[in-house]
Amino acid sequence: MIKLSLSNLPVNQKLARNIYDQDGKLLLAKGILLEPRHIQQLLKKGLEEVFLWDEIPAQPLAQYESRAVRRPAELPAGMGTAVEAFREFMYSLSRGHIITCNQVEETVDLIYPEIMESNNILNQIRLLRQKDEYTMKHSVSVSVIAVKLGEHMGLKEKSLRNLAKAALLHDIGKARVSLELINKPAKLTDQEFKEMQQHPVHGFKIAQEMKLPNLEVFTAILQHHERFDGNGYPFRVLGRKLHIFSRIIAVADVFDALTSDRLYRKAMPLFDALDEVINNSIGHLDPAITRRLGAYVLNVIPGELVRLNDGSTASIVMVNRDEPQRPMVRKDNRFINLKEERELHIIDLL
Ligand SMILES: [Fe+2]
Q: How far, in Å, from the CA of 96 to the mean position of ligand 1?
């Protein structure tokens, strides 16, 4: 029999002694195969160590061999085509041409079923990031994230399709901002920033020229940089006056921007970005929607492969809700609780 720390435990091990709480109530009976939920339960009760039989060889637990290995390696075809379609839109608009409502509808038709079919959009977002220009992939990514958020908030199909359209077009006004400014690899000057801040207005005008029939799409394009506390642009509209689409797209926009490589900074790891969106955007973003995003990610993340700061890979087994960036992971044949093993942390998803 050996005594081992709960924060770094071999998988597939049986408990060698009963475990009782402070009142003498049986928590776990000896002989039970220790699973991550048991480990979490014991850690919550303040226990740090358990007795295990040391002669049982560690075998992989099939259920934790995880979705990660079945993760598709390629971007769904519709999303890939949508990025190309969006490139065409931007090119046409920048040359003074107009795009049609039908072209946008066709692009929504490409991505909508793929978003609905996917329980875990994180992989699609990751694959989209491997595409080139930021604005193209970002527009499709924001659409994917916004629609998934809208679905989890209970929006119906007609609304979701319009939300997909609004999110896809949210930055369309950038087609009328100079490329030099869009691609500037350094911080913008005050004057340049003012010019950039006009892109929601340019986008609104483009939507008018297209004669888009959906008022909510216009509104969301115009309002996607407005902030909950009224400190956004271009009109400093306050919180609840903002259309629900604008608030959803604002969250999707910030989350995707933080987790993408930009010309002037590297992408932020997923959990740091989530923490930033939920905790550091208080006042800026709608907290009901940022919490929804957090809940969604925590729900789909178990099974994902991650890289740790020691260079090794691990898979996420269970998320610690109070410290989601430090979940329990499985590395080789051990369960490691990153909440306890503080010298290890996640660098990023693989
Ligand atoms: Fe924007």
A: 20
Q: How far apart are CA 256 and CA 156, in angstroms?
A: 24
269 C-alpha to ligand 1 centroid (Å): 21
CA of 180 to the centre of ligand 1 (A): 16
**CB of 11 within 8 A of CB of 39?**
no
- Both 296 and 309 in one domain: the answer is no
254 and 112 fall within a common domain: yes
pTM: 0.79
CA of 225 to the centre of ligand 1 (A): 6
Whether residues 123 and 212 share a domain: the answer is yes
Distance CA 277, CA 324 (A): 13
Cα distances (angstroms) measured from residue 196 to each of 171, 178, 285:
11, 9, 20
**Number of domains, the chain:** 3
Q: What is the CATH number of the domain that holds 52?
A: 3.90.105.10
Question: Is 11 found in the same domain as 107?
Answer: no
Digit-by-digit pLDDT tens for the chain (350 residues) are 777 888 777 777 788 888 888 777 888 888 888 888 888 788 877 788 888 876 554 444 444 444 444 556 788 999 999 999 998 999 899 888 989 999 999 999 999 999 999 988 988 888 887 756 777 889 999 999 999 999 999 999 999 999 999 999 999 999 999 888 888 888 889 999 999 999 999 999 999 999 988 899 999 999 999 998 999 999 999 888 999 999 999 999 999 999 888 777 788 888 888 889 988 778 899 999 998 998 898 888 888 888 899 999 999 888 877 777 788 899 888 889 998 899 998 877 77
Task: Examine the domain organization and report whether 42 and 89 are in the same domain.
Answer: no
Which residues span the domain enclosing 26? 2-67
List % helix, strand, coil for the chain (3-state, nearest 5).
50, 10, 40
